[in-house]
Amino acid sequence: MHEDEHEHLFAEPARDFVHPVARRAAMRFVPLPMLTSWDELLGMLAGRPRENGDAAIRETAEYLLSVFQRAGIEADSFTYMAHPYRLRIAGIVILLGTLFYAWCMRVRRARLALATAVALPVILLANLDYYVPIFGWIGRVQQPHIEARIGPSQPVQQLVLSAHFDSKTDLLDHVERAPIDYLGLPVILLLLAAAVLELRRRGAGAPSGPARWSVPVAALYGLVSFAALTGGAFVPSRSHGALDDGAACATLVRVAERLAAAPAPLQRTAVRILLLSGEEAGVHGSWEYVRARFAPPPLPTRVINMEFFGASADLAVFKSERFSLRSYPADPDLLALVDRVHRARRGKPIHVTWYGAATDARSFLAHGVPALTLLSDLPGHALARHMHSDYDRRDKIDPRALDETVEFLLQVVAEADA
Question: Residue 312 in contact with residue 351, Cβ under 8 Å?
């Protein structure tokens, strides 16, 4: 169900479980009689693929900029040099590297196999975790982010609300891919050990041993890594990026419109609505943005990132944001803030996942900016499935959940400003 452009949104939060102080904070925001309809927003942000490197990314950015300008909100674009095929190429590199390792071990060239087993993780970590463009430069193209700003002319602090509008299609979903991700380090250590043992056996004149079992291990890991990272390029039915993450972008547009219409303007806090591309390319877009504009941030800054919105009005927080060899916990002060609002609005604490994630929040955390990522909390705290597939379409979004999430975020902003 989608309301029309003149439908009156909640002027105050739903009365169930709402603390009086929370209600007063939320009532500061009175909706405009004209807001961009969910039909329009979701048609653009959840109605088609928006893959990095494609024209749809630029068209979506132009649309978002026009929506903000139409509402009289200060907004502009930030252009960076994107590497849209970083992950696809990484899958090819892993496949070729492991097959070369397997060949070296098969013909008992253990020194070359050892060098390959050392070089492969170093190259991948440098490219994917530390953003050294060893092979990411292939197919690079300029891409935009969209940034809107609302608040006083001389703020004393800054709250960034972010989400990404790019989409991606994979052969495997997050749950199916997780074992491959976690097995990466053990497999590399196993291949290193096999090469070292083979060198020792060869030096002692003993017959080949590790070479026999390391060959299928290397080849199999290369194939499954290729399927996880590159296989999605060959899937004909593409994800529309609805729950991940077009619905969150639509929610933030509504939040911006409501803030711009508030009769009691923000007093201390500049709110920055940041809509990002490049998240699905190994969280590359936000890294370039933070490096350019938030190192260090111009004001005391906190960041609330959004992923997987629109499936439920209940919300959760990712426990941590991870790279391959390091992770950052969700900021405890921000967690206390969103938990307080969630208890007031939903009558229960916000759920913190037992697992970490790799979202745009990690770019801020890695640069010392407090951040966390919010997401829809499914019944029973179930894991989201099939997000990078044709399953993720607009019909999976519940506009009523988006309405409640808008009110939640407005209340978070009000409490942060207070």
Answer: no
Whose tokens are 């711009």? That residue is 260
Radius of gyration of the chain (CA): 23
CATH of the domain at 367: 3.40.630.10
Q: Which spans in 244-331 are helix H?
A: 247-260, 284-293
- Statement to judge: residues 114 and 252 lie in one domain: no
The pLDDT, as a whole number, for residue 369 is: 95
Mean pLDDT of the chain: 90
Please give the Cα distance from 173 to 232 (Å, whole number): 10
Token readout for 211 is 């070479």
DSSP secondary structure string, 349-371? PPEE-SS-B-STHHHHHHTT--E
Give the tokens for residue 121.
């993780």
- Asked if the structure places residue 1 within a domain, the reply is no
| pLDDT score recorded for residue 205 | 66
Q: Which are the contacts of 58, defined by CB distance < 8 A and separation ≥ 6?
A: 143, 144
- What is this structure's pTM? 0.89
Give every CB contact of residue 224 below 8 A, 6+ residues apart in sequence: 180
The domain boundary, picked from 233, 249, 281, lies at: 233
